Amino acid sequence: MSPFRSPHKFLLFIFAVAFLLGILQVGLVSIAFDKLGLSQQAAFLLLFSSLAGSMINLPLFSVRAEQPAEPPQLPALWPIKLPPFTGRTIVAVNTGGCLIPLTFSLYLLLNNPLPLFHAVLGVAAITAVSYTMSRPIAGLGIGMPLFVAPISAALVAILINPEQSAPLAYISGTLGVLIGADLLRLKDIRHLGAPLASIGGAGTFDGIFITGIVAVLLA
Which end of the chain is more exposed for a tag (fewer CB within 10 A), N or C? Predict the structure, then answer.
């Protein structure tokens, strides 16, 4: 949830761009999506849909919020000026970081011999991890270490269902983060003093997409 999942969002953005370019060059994206049963064309369509959707936040409602005690400390090279805090926080849903992963997870669940109980168990496990490891950051949003969720999702998927570990890792990782670090943290947004709280954060570069890719590669 955010607009930003950590106070070093710009650095994460740069890292994510370099990460995506690197894995594109060595073909790891194709490997990951091949494990999920997607063609190369479908894989790149999902990739760029997530990227484009990351720029689209759909407002849902707004809530009264408290002014943070101290202004957020942003990196010196921060490229984006935060909008002024007006006493209310707009809660939105991000297309690339929430709606697309939800849709693709449903697709995987319907097109793989993956028991629903296993999916629920995997999502519940990563939800617990994400909620435990995430923290509210005043003026910004919810922060969580980037690689905790994908590594946990891969391990959980292998333990629960080794034969379907790839789709289970993606479903558990993406939905677990959305629920644990975003939805269950809605109660904290009144105390953040952030002008916008976006479910799914900034989409692709907010870690949701990377979580799914890394989890599948490790599974």
Answer: C
Which residues, in sequence order, are CB contacts of 181 under 8 Å at separation 6+? Answer: 1, 5, 130, 131, 133, 134, 142, 144, 149
- Assess contact for 191 and 160: CB atoms under 8 A: no
Could you read off the pLDDT of 27-46 as tens digits, one per residue? 666 677 777 887 777 877 88
State the pLDDT at residue 117: 95
Q: What is the pLDDT of residues 53-96, one digit of tens each?
A: 878 888 888 888 777 665 555 544 444 555 666 778 888 888 88
Whether the pTM exceeds 0.90: the reply is no
Under DSSP, the state recorded for 2 is: B
Pinpoint the alpha helices (H) of the chain. Answer: 9-26, 28-35, 40-53, 100-110, 116-133, 148-160, 165-177, 208-218
d(CA 194, CA 66): 9
Q: Tokens at residue 82, please? A: 């935060």
Question: Residue 139 and residue 137: Cα distance in Å, rounded?
Answer: 6
